[in-house]
Amino acid sequence: MIWEAQPRQERFLREVLDPDGANEILYGGAAGGGKTDALLIAGIMWCRMFPGAWVLYLRRTYPELEQKPIPRSKELIPASVAIYHETKHRWVYRNGSVFQFGSLDKAGDEVRYQSAEYSLIIWDELTHFQERQYLYMLSRNRTTNPAIQRTKVIAGTNPGNVGHVWVKSRWIDPAPPETVWEAPLEPDVVAAVRALGVPAESIRPRKRLFIPAKVTDNQRLMEIDPGYIMRLASLPEADRKMLMDGDWDVFAGQYFSCWRREIHVVQPFPIPEHWRLFRSIDYGLDMTACYWWAVDQSGRCYIYRELYQPDLTLSQAARKIVEMTPEDERGRIEYTVVSPDLWNRRQDTGKSGVETFIENGVDGILRADHRRVPGWFQLHEFLNPFINEHGEQDAHLKVFSTCTNLIRTLPALVRSERNPNDVDDNCEDHAPESVRYGVMSRPAPARPIDHRRVELERRFEKGSPEYRIWSQYLDEEAKHDDSGIDPFDLV
After folding, report:
1. Which of 193, 240, 276, 479 has the fewest C-beta atoms under 10 angstroms from its C-beta?
2. Is the pLDDT of residue 159 over 90?
């Protein structure tokens, strides 16, 4: 069949095939922008241009691949060029190239590609994946084919879902759309590469680029189905902004939509000696997430230190926690709350995880209330912003800016499709799980005094028209107040 690129698709394909262009390219942002066709054509052209190339096209599940990408590829690739192998889900080209369809349904599936080599990796609906899956697959983005001057990773996606926050921070926030920019190299990464004897001139930063595309950029769709844009426009506001406008500042499905960096994240400061201290731990061999808490006189909690490290045994994790607790704090830690599974005995040692922790210096251990939904609700109460006595936005839980993994993963949690009151299992939730144990060990935060309502009752008689009007205003404002404006300034 004859395929003709739309202008935005043509811009994308030129960048993909440019050896001096960006290494990591994100395309789309809104529904109907022609993402699937653009990604498939990019892979097809790559296979045609570079004999012997291997290309990987990823969706989260095989049913998603079979819903559109695979059938569409059969319309785009003629049998004279390549043969499709149904059982292996791959196109084998007559020039030796391979176009492979693959999936990453859950965390850990990426290790199935451990020994693979792909000069082009294509992610369809990138925000459906976790960041650690993406970063791992970057190690598979390699080639020994001398004809390929630069390997590439390309992706198409809409805003939202479990990967919204990390995708936004990797492509959307750092630079304006259509701008190729170099991602800064981490000093420890450079040092590790230099230690292998790699010349400095060979260490090059990766280039990234975001190319936005909306339904109005897909003229073919607008001609064939002119009513589609009206269906997008009739969606609820959050969905409409994401899918029609490609707005990355809207995050439908976010569990803690009350999270505000300007409210919940604070710069580190010395913890007063009279504040109460405790720790919370979510332990797993895949990740140990430990947090140090301080509670002020009003019951407001501050999370001030973070341990977030994989591949620690129980004894290693315990020793690391003790090591990270300064001498002057050790006698002040009132308790450490940990998940109930650490009371189970290990088959290899016959000891429970709690016993191992105690033997290695972590004492005062309490069993966490690990109920998921009540715990998330309790955490929501601690995070919910309110107006304090100074007329400022405040919350009962604050996080030091040094706790980077908690700040990264907590606002990224999304609702489960099976149970909207719970968090989706595919989220990176080690840090939030630990914090959930922490808030469940505390009494629920007291409802703050609404000083504006006190002022309302001082000014107007209860039951009066003025009182009813302003009371209704305050009720509505309490549901979604971001302004900090005192309504009495408007009287």
Report:
1. 479
2. no
